[in-house]
């Protein structure tokens, strides 16, 4: 029975270590989400987050490149330039 008990103890130790590491990883993930600004309850308006800062950068770039928004592509933004037309009216049938 010595071998069985040794393996059981080793498995229990590894499982305990894994649970501790999992708790540490969850805490670090929560910290990262807070910094990013994507944790529950945070919005783009939550100050001092990367999400908030990126929005400010985007707004400043849009102001600087007004009427030439396609130039924002050099900063990594995907810009879609399109025009819309009014829907065509179809005559009513009697």
Tally of domains: 2
What fraction, in percent, of the residue positions are helical? 40-55%
The largest sheet is:
none
Mean pLDDT: 90
Segments where pLDDT lies below 50 for 5+ residues? none
What integer value in Å does the Rg equal? 27 Å
Quote the distance from N terminus to C terminus. 94 Å
Q: Topology as H/E string?
A: HH
How many separate helices? 2
Percentage of β-strand residues: under 5%
* Total number of beta strands: 0
- Bulk shape: elongated
Structural category is mainly alpha
Can you walk me through this structure?
- There is one protein chain.
- This protein has 2 helices and no strands.
- With 94 residues, it is mostly helical.
- It folds into 2 domains: 1-36; 43-81, no CATH class.
- The longest helix has 35 residues, at 2-36.
- The radius of gyration is 27 Å and the shape is elongated.
